[in-house]
Write a structure and sequence with these properties.
The protein has 409 residues and is α/β, with parallel strands linked by helices. Helix content is 44%, strand content 17%. The protein has a six-stranded mixed beta sheet with strand order 8-10-9-11-12-13. A five-stranded parallel beta sheet has the order 2-3-4-1-5, with helices on both faces. Strands 6-7 form a two-stranded antiparallel sheet. Helix 1 crosses helix 6, helix 4 crosses helix 5 and helix 13 crosses helix 14. 39% of the residues are buried.
């Protein structure tokens, strides 16, 4: 389609199609029937709070439920009696809207809904990372329309956060949505009978039936990070195909090349596969070069891009005195979702040699929403090691030390 052929009528018709509640006052049944994630309880008040003059930026990797959460927020506002014609959802990635300034999209939305007044709106921009300089556009909207709430979502989380911090100081409220946690998995699957104590993270669980809990934990590692897979019997038959084609391939073959101008996507794909297979291992740039055949300069770029896409988390090392090394030659890399390894290779079982590393990977992924996410390290010295060190930012004191093992001891 030649973009020059897209008319104002086409854009308005598309907006009306994406916002069916303008007519029937309810969100599509598909979104209404899905269970809410635990994070929705924290997200909804931020969206509904119009006393704080800020846009909300919802970040997270692909397929963790960001779009569902946006529609569920819209559904709650409709139930509370907010004018449905002043609630608008726009998928920025749609070819009809590609490269259109956000302010023009908002003007088209008002025209399409039949409400030209620009006060009292709730406007949701999905997949905002596809708009160049999105943060400048969003900041301008916040500054121009004081009586309207703007909510944006995007998948390149670290890149979004960087731009949000740079341009959105005092204008944006960031909200990170991680892959499904084991705590949520237990709740959503109705497995509370397997534990006697469950707080807001699964490190506080006490098992009643350890064999059953272990079985579900292995299922969680293999496909449980994605809500759609957990609730779809069809996807469970071949979760690897869904995760690989709809998540990993789209990020590696489309999102990253389009956002960062990567030309050698085959090399990037191979590099990510190497990391995924060795998730939880300690790396050095020299070892990675030998293992992957990619030069150090390119490796540094790829690591930045993969972390920006929220596929990996790099964890740095401290010594026995909790000091970071001046030259960070060694570091660990974890997948943000253990299920990606199973999708690329094969599902793991309890006896696999990789089970220890994937247990570690799963536990690190539980911490992605915590405020101390950036303060996670591991410690290693001549005759000792600690898997997870949570440092206090105010000084070289640990807030937590966690040793992670998959064993019967």
């Amino acid at each position: 389609m030649d973009l020059s052929e897209i008319s104002e009528k086409d854009i308005i018709d598309r907006l009306r199609f994406e916002n069916p509640w303008w007519q029937d006052k309810k969100i599509p049944d598909f979104y209404g029937k899905l269970p809410e994630r635990e994070y929705f309880k924290s997200f909804l008040p931020i969206v509904q709070n119009t006393t704080v003059h800020r846009a909300v930026v919802l970040m997270g990797p692909r397929r963790v439920g960001k779009t569902v959460m946006l529609f569920q927020a819209i559904g709650m506002m409709l139930k509370k009696g907010i004018n449905p014609r002043k609630i608008c959802y726009i998928n920025v990635e749609n070819p009809y809207f590609l490269n259109l300034p956000l302010e023009r999209l908002f003007a088209y939305a008002r025209r399409a809904s039949g409400v030209e007044e620009h006060n009292g709106w709730f406007v949701f921009f999905d997949e905002i990372q596809y708009l160049k300089d999105w943060e400048v556009h969003l900041k301008s909207l916040v500054d121009s329309y004081h009586e309207t709430k703007f909510i944006a979502s995007g998948s390149a989380a670290a890149a979004l956060k960087l731009k949000s911090n740079e341009s959105g100081a005092g204008r944006f409220t960031d909200f990170m949505l991680p892959p499904l946690t084991f705590y949520e998995y237990i709740h959503l699957k109705g497995l509370e009978n397997l534990v006697s104590k469950i707080e807001d993270n699964f490190l506080d669980m006490e098992a009643i039936d350890i064999k059953s809990l272990n079985k579900h934990f292995i299922d969680y590692i293999n496909f449980g990070g994605y809500p759609e897979v957990v609730f779809s019997e069809e996807l469970k038959k071949d979760p690897g195909r869904y995760i690989r084609s709809d998540i990993i391939d789209k990020v590696l073959l489309r999102d990253l090349p389009s956002l960062y101008g990567i030309e050698n996507v085959q090399e990037l794909n191979k590099f990510f596969s190497t990391i995924a297979y060795n998730s939880g291992n300690e790396f050095s740039f020299e070892a990675m070069t030998q293992l992957s055949g990619v030069d150090k300069t390119t490796i540094r770029k790829y690591l930045t891009f993969l972390e920006a896409a929220y596929l990996i988390k790099i964890v740095h090392r401290v010594d026995m005195n909790l000091k970071r090394f001046k030259r960070e030659n060694f570091f660990k890399i974890y997948l943000t979702n253990a299920a990606m390894r199973s999708a690329l290779f094969s599902p793991i079982v309890a006896e696999d040699d990789s089970m220890g590393n994937m247990t570690e990977t799963a536990i690190f992924s539980q911490s992605l929403m915590q405020e101390d996410y950036q303060s996670l390290y591991y410690a290693r010295w001549q005759d000792g090691e600690i898997d997870m060190v949570i440092l206090n930012n105010k000084g070289l004191k640990p807030d937590g030390l966690i040793e992670i093992k998959w064993s019967n001891r």
